């Protein structure tokens, strides 16, 4: 009989969450480095370089890889011979570990969980509660697998119950094409096949916890139909040409993970959950001897990439920029922004829209004339930081608010991923622009921020409206004032080109 002490369990959860907030898994770094070397699309290659450099900076600085430090998901396999030295339940113990990790003074993480999920949606302040799954198994150990899952990639989870004879590959390809870039590729696809509706989803999520090994599988060849399916999906998804950040390129996924379970003769449940570039997961075992001991990776595991802004990029003074000036910017063009930017994301947009609908003044003396807004929810600063990691959030969610804010004089937005057709039409109509920063390069982006000032809605926490002063913040024009979108032209240009088996260019 093994005894697991409450304090060891809580400390292990907290330490593991801190660890994965700043150390990418080694297998991800290796796979992304290989994809970076093979990538021929300049835009996708640049995005990968930013993600890799950001990852190294985070490992050195012990600060989060992404401003979205995730929702915590824990899978526990508890041996039936384990005794727990605690009065609390497993959910409470996990939540205590989450609280400790997310409020760690040396590396504070972003609290992203809101409760209740509809209505007030108030931030719980410490990223609790976690989502906990428990299985009782034979033995006297506790196996812990945990992840800090980003909201952008979780938003792209999809599920269907297909007919047993349906073409599963076709469903996956159509589904991935419909996801856009909000899940921050290149990442992984977790696919769950079989069981029931909820079992398929759990299989997909668990599949993402396995290490990246598709290249070993490619080298040795598939041993069963599921391995063959992984290889087929890996090549076919990459051939879609979506590429890093949806900019068009040869690598969209670094692996496709599949888990299966027997199912009903009438059904073929299938779940797909993507994981973003900020993949964060870890597994460890507790055997009663104390808390987990985690060994930091070696910095030599990271490629020697030092990303610097493109010297030919256009320099923009945000304090003097005009609608006439942005009319010259062309889709795909690199910019370096300096000056003052407003920030705001989902909850702030909702409130602004409500105020405007009631004909009321904007808060904090906010004037949107000739301003740009950055869709971001930053991590709180520590030590001498003015702001913590502050990468872009998915712009598509702000589409419904775009026209109303453009009507107020806003001339530009900065985010990540594609815009919908209505937002693009509004951008064109107003002669505005949409710019993108690299999702998953949040610490690198934050290095360009010189000051941060609260403007409105302090109660929204990370979703409050702030004003940042930036210096040489690197962005790319994703929708220009003529309504041309890089997320349409990029993937079109790279469809069909897979690393290693690239057809001759036409
Ligand atoms: O919440 C965020 O900061 C980002 C989110 O994960 C997203 O990808 O849209």
TrEMBL record:
GO BP terms, alphabetized: generation of precursor metabolites and energy
Reactions accelerated catalytically: (S)-malate = fumarate + H2O
InterPro entries referenced in this protein's UniProt entry, alphabetically: Fe-S_hydro-lyase_TtdA-typ_cat (IPR004646), Fe-S_hydro-lyase_TtdB-typ_cat (IPR004647), Fe-S_hydroAse_TtdB_cat_sf (IPR036660), Fe_dep_fumarate_hydratase (IPR011167)
Needed cofactors: [4Fe-4S] cluster
Keyword Repeat: no
Fe-S hydro-lyase tartrate dehydratase beta-type catalytic domain ranges (all copies): 288-489
UniProt keyword list: 4Fe-4S, Iron, Iron-sulfur, Lyase, Metal-binding
GO molecular function, one term: 4 iron, 4 sulfur cluster binding
Sections of the chain in a coiled coil: none
Gene3D superfamilies, alphabetized: Fe-S hydro-lyase, tartrate dehydratase beta-type, catalytic domain
Residue ranges of every copy of the Fe-S hydro-lyase tartrate dehydratase alpha-type catalytic domain listed in the record: 11-284
Family: Belongs to the class-I fumarase family.
Assembly information from the UniProt record: Homodimer.
Role, per record: Catalyzes the reversible hydration of fumarate to (S)-malate.
Name of the featured protein: Fumarate hydratase class I
Source organism of this protein record: Thermochromatium tepidum ATCC 43061
């Amino acid at each position: 009989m093994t005894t697991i002490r409450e304090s060891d369990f809580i400390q292990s959860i907290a330490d593991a969450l801190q660890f994965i907030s700043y150390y990418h898994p080694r297998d991800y770094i290796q796979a992304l480095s290989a994809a970076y070397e093979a990538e021929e699309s300049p835009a996708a290659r640049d995005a990968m370089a930013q993600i890799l450099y950001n990852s190294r900076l985070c490992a050195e600085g012990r600060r989060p890889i992404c401003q979205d430090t995730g929702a915590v998901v824990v899978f526990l396999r508890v041996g039936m011979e384990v005794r727990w030295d605690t009065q609390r339940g497993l959910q409470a113990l996990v939540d205590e570990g989450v609280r400790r990790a997310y409020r760690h003074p040396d590396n504070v993480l972003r609290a992203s969980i809101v409760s209740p999920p509809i209505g007030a949606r108030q931030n719980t302040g410490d990223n609790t509660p976690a989502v906990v799954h428990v299985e009782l198994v034979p033995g006297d150990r506790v196996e812990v697998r945990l992840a800090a899952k980003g909201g952008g990639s979780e938003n792209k989870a999809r599920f269907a119950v297909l007919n047993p004879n349906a073409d599963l590959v076709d469903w996956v390809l159509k589904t991935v094409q419909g996801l856009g870039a909000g899940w921050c590729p290149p990442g992984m696809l977790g696919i769950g096949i079989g069981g029931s509706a909820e079992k398929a989803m759990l299989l997909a999520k668990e599949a993402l916890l396995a290490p990246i090994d598709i290249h070993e599988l490619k080298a040795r060849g598939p041993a069963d139909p599921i391995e063959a399916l992984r290889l087929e999906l890996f090549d076919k998804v990459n051939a879609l040409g979506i590429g890093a950040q949806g900019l068009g390129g040869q690598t969209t996924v670094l692996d496709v993970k599949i888990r299966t379970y027997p199912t009903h003769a009438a059904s073929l449940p299938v779940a797909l959950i993507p994981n973003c570039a900020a993949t964060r997961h870890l597994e460890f075992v507790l055997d009663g001897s104390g808390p987990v001991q985690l060994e930091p990776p070696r910095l030599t595991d990271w490629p020697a990439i030092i990303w610097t802004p493109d010297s030919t990029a256009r320099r923009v003074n945000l304090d003097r920029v005009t609608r006439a000036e942005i009319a010259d910017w062309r889709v795909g063009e690199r910019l370096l922004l300096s000056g003052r930017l407003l920030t705001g994301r989902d909850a702030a947009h909702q409130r602004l829209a409500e105020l405007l609908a009631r004909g009321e003044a904007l808060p904090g003396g906010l004037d949107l004339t000739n301003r740009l807004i950055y869709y971001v929810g930053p991590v709180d600063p520590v030590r001498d930081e003015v702001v913590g990691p502050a990468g872009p959030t998915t712009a598509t969610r702000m589409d419904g608010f775009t026209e109303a804010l453009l009507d107020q004089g806003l001339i530009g937005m900065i985010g990540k991923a594609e815009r919908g057709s209505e937002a693009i039409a509004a951008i064109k109509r107003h002669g505005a622009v949409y710019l993108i920063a690299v999702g998953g390069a949040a610490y690198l982006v934050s290095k360009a921020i010189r000051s941060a000032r609260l403007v409105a809605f302090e109660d929204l926490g990370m979703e409050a409206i702030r004003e940042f002063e930036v210096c040489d913040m690197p962005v790319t024009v994703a929708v220009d004032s003529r309504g041309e979108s890089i997320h349409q032209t990029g993937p079109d240009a790279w469809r069909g080109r897979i690393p290693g088996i690239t057809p001759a260019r036409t």
